[in-house]
């Protein structure tokens, strides 16, 4: 517990700041799931379900679980980039913190704790909205929250390490444009990756979002038609995301220490 | 008995090819205000960062409270307060939240922080701003808040890097007054500055740094007595006349310096020197007589002015 004491102190500072900024994020937390579920689920979904009724579950349930992982990715990636950039360059609160007993590693672990809390709340909101849309039953919806939150934290950790080593803001915008967005579209959120041409399918297997989406689906919808998910066992997805989190925190701490303590 | 809080031997900092601090030695006694005086780029900030354990030591030895900054940084930082050169107050928080967050970083309890915040806002003359955001505060207020924040954990040692740079004269004097009070309460202060008046006002002892090295050490008065004659006569000439005057300066004073805009004569008797200036037919536009300052010490030691 003593090892987590300093990270908890930094985590707490995130809460204090969030008291001032929560209004801006609350809208997007509600709005994103509603927009996506409306467009993808009800719109596209009605076509898909009518045309190919061979799914054991509705397309709406398929896409809702995918969207929970993808939404967690976007939020987690955002937490790994902008507040980290701000802490180093704009708001400079990281520079202040390290003149106290807080170490660079405590900042990263504290931020991972904060991201976990925030994503748990955001994903619970998403789950409840998915239930209201009739996309998921309450049980499966709530079961989807922890794996989705883990997906987000994994992205936060990896992108923290990335952000610390970048000098320009443009590289962060490009990360979103050329990595996060394509992943969002082609990692199984909207359709099984088995439908991708061979080499793209292989690439999709390697992406972290694929493992997040699969983990959420396999946990929330255990009776899902095996043809729309991969045959990989659950633990591979879990191990992938945990490893990504641990490596992200490890390298993030190392790079941040170099950056803040030249 | 003077207890030594910080002791450095051969302390060195190197960034790739740049030697920022070159094997310096110093001892900082408890309860004193210790100054690092020098121009920008002399290595003052790098030294401060090594003392506050936020920059790794390249070579040499240092102890802070008898602890090793290389391995016991957390314990050292628990007992110090740092006022960085550049304000890094958290602009997303209010004045009192800035103190709260630092109190928590120092693992203080909430009631403890509440009580201390009240005292410190009072000390920093910011009590009526407790719940205001940081952004609209003036430069002087921000600096005082940064100092209050550094004092939240009741530190044994306070490190102030250029505490008054960028402030207007009134804000500077207010800040000096606060720092003077801190000193009276028995805190140990380390101050870096390139203002000689600041060093003279606040420091009991100081080192003069130039080009990564310590070039002199002593009390402000002691340094002046050692390195500069008592009085200074400054002469300003009309355009073109300075070069002409240079040839007639020899022997007028114990030493002289020709600067871009004026000539400085160091002397033990200013009246005598002024008479000499007149009798040699020098015709300065302006004559200024003053006591020697640390600026003159610096000029003597390095051949350059502090603000060059």
How much β-strand is present in the residues of chain B?
Answer: 25-35%
Going by CATH, the architecture of the largest domain in chain B would be 3-Layer(aba) Sandwich
Q: Please, what is the average pLDDT of chain A? A: 90
Structural class estimated from helices and strands of chain A: mainly alpha
Structural class of chain B: alpha/beta
Number of helices in the DSSP assignment of chain B: 11
Strand order of the largest sheet of chain B: 5-6-7-3-8-9
Q: How is the biggest beta sheet of chain B arranged?
A: 6 strands, mixed
Unreliable stretches of chain A (pLDDT < 50, length at least 5) are none
For the largest beta-sheet of chain A, the strand count, sense and barrel status come to:
none
**Termini gap of chain A:** 30 Å
Number of domains of chain A: 1
Choose one word for the global shape of chain A: globular
* Global morphology of chain B: elongated
* Helical fraction of chain A: over 70%
CATH class (first level) name of the largest domain in chain B: Alpha Beta
End-to-end C-alpha gap of chain B: 40 Å
Q: Could you tell me the radius of gyration of chain B in angstroms?
A: 22 Å
- The name of the CATH topology of the largest domain in chain B is Rossmann fold
Please describe the structure with a list of short key phrases separated by commas or semicolons.
heterodimer, A: 262 residues, mainly alpha, 9 helices, B: 308 residues, alpha/beta, Rossmann fold, Alpha-Beta Plaits, 2 domains
Give a brief description.
In chain A, 81% of the residues lie in helices and 0% in strands. Chain A has 262 residues and is an all-alpha fold. Helix content of chain B is 35%, strand content 27%.
Description of the molecule:
Chain A contains nine helices and no strands. Chain A is mostly helical. Chain A has helices at 2-51, 59-90, 93-97, 104-132, 138-165, 169-186, 198-206, 208-220, 234-260. Helix content of chain A is 81%, strand content 0%. Chain A has one domain (25-260). The radius of gyration of chain A is 19 Å and the shape is globular. In chain A, helix 2 packs across helix 8 (208-220). The longest helix of chain A is centred in the N-terminal third of the chain and has 50 residues, at 2-51. Chain B has 308 residues and is of the alpha/beta class. Chain B folds into two domains: 4-224, P-loop containing nucleotide triphosphate hydrolases (Rossmann fold, 3-Layer(aba) Sandwich); 229-291, Alpha-Beta Plaits. Helix content of chain B is 35%, strand content 27%. In chain B, the strands form three sheets. In chain B, strands 5-6-7-3-8-9 form a six-stranded mixed sheet, sandwiched between helices. A four-stranded antiparallel sheet of chain B has the order 11-12-10-13, with helices on one face. Chain B has a three-stranded antiparallel sheet with strand order 2-1-4, with helices on one face. In chain B, helix 6 (169-184) links the parallel strand 6 and strand 7 (188-193). In chain B, helix 3 runs parallel beside helix 5, helix 5 (139-150) runs parallel beside helix 6 and helix 8 (220-227) packs across helix 11. The two termini of chain B are 40 Å apart. The model of chain B has no long low-confidence stretch (mean pLDDT 89). Classes of the chains: A mainly alpha (262), B alpha/beta (308). Chains A and B meet through helix 1 and helix 3 of A and helix 2 and helix 3 of B.
């Amino acid at each position: 517990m003593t090892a987590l004491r300093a990270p908890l102190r930094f985590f707490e500072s995130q809460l204090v700041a969030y008291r001032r900024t929560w209004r801006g994020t609350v809208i997007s937390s509600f709005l994103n799931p509603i927009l996506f579920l409306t467009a993808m689920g009800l719109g596209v979904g009605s076509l898909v379900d009518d045309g190919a009724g061979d799914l054991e579950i509705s397309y709406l349930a398929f896409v809702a679980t995918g969207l929970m992982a993808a939404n967690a990715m976007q939020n987690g990636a955002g937490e790994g980039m902008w507040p980290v950039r701000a802490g180093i360059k704009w708001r400079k609160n990281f520079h202040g913190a390290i003149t106290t007993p807080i170490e660079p590693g405590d900042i990263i672990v504290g931020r991972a704790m904060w991201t976990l809390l925030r994503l748990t709340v955001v994903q619970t909101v998403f789950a409840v909205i998915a239930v209201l849309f009739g996309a998921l039953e309450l049980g499966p919806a709530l079961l989807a929250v922890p794996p989705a939150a883990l997906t987000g934290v994994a992205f936060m950790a990896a992108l923290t390490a990335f952000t610390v080593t970048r000098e320009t803001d443009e590289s962060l915008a490009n990360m979103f444009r050329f990595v996060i967005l394509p992943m969002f579209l082609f990692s199984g959120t909207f359709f099984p990756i088995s439908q991708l041409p061979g080499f793209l399918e292989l690439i999709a297997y390697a992406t972290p979002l694929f493992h997040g989406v699969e983990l959420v689906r396999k946990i929330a919808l255990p009776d899902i038609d095996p043809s729309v998910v991969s045959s990989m066992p659950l633990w591979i997805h879990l191990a992938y995301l945990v490893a990504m989190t641990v490596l992200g925190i490890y390298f993030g701490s190392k790079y941040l220490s170099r950056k803040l303590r030249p | 008995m003077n207890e030594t809080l910080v002791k450095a031997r051969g302390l060195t900092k190197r960034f790739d090819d740049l030697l920022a601090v070159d094997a310096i030695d110093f001892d900082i006694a408890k309860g004193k205000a210790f100054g690092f005086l020098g121009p920008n780029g002399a290595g003052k900030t790098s030294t401060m960062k090594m003392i506050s354990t936020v920059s790794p030591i390249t070579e040499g030895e240092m102890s802070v409270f008898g602890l090793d900054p290389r391995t016991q940084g957390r314990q050292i930082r628990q007992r110090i307060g740092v006022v960085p050169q550049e304000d890094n107050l958290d602009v997303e928080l209010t004045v009192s939240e800035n103190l709260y967050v630092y109190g928590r970083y120092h693992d203080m309890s909430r009631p403890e922080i509440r009580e201390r915040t009240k005292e410190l806002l009072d000390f920093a003359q910011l009590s009526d701003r407790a719940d205001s955001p940081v952004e609209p505060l003036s430069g002087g207020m921000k600096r005082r808040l940064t100092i209050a924040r550094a004092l939240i954990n009741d530190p044994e040692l306070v490190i102030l890097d250029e505490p008054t740079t960028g402030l207007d004269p009134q804000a500077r004097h207010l800040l000096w007054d606060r720092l003077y009070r801190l000193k009276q309460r028995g805190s140990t202060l380390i101050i870096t500055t390139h203002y000689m008046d600041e060093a003279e006002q606040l420091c009991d002892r100081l080192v003069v740094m130039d080009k990564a090295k310590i070039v002199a050490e002593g009390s402000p008065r002691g340094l002046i007595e050692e390195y500069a004659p008592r009085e200074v006569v400054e002469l300003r000439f009309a355009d073109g006349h300075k070069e002409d005057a240079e040839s007639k300066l020899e022997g007028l004073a114990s030493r002289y310096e020709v600067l871009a805009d004026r000539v400085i004569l160091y002397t033990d008797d200013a009246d005598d020197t002024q008479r000499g200036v007149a009798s040699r037919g020098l015709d300065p536009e302006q004559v200024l007589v003053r006591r020697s300052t640390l600026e003159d010490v610096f000029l003597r030691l390095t051949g350059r002015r502090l603000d060059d």
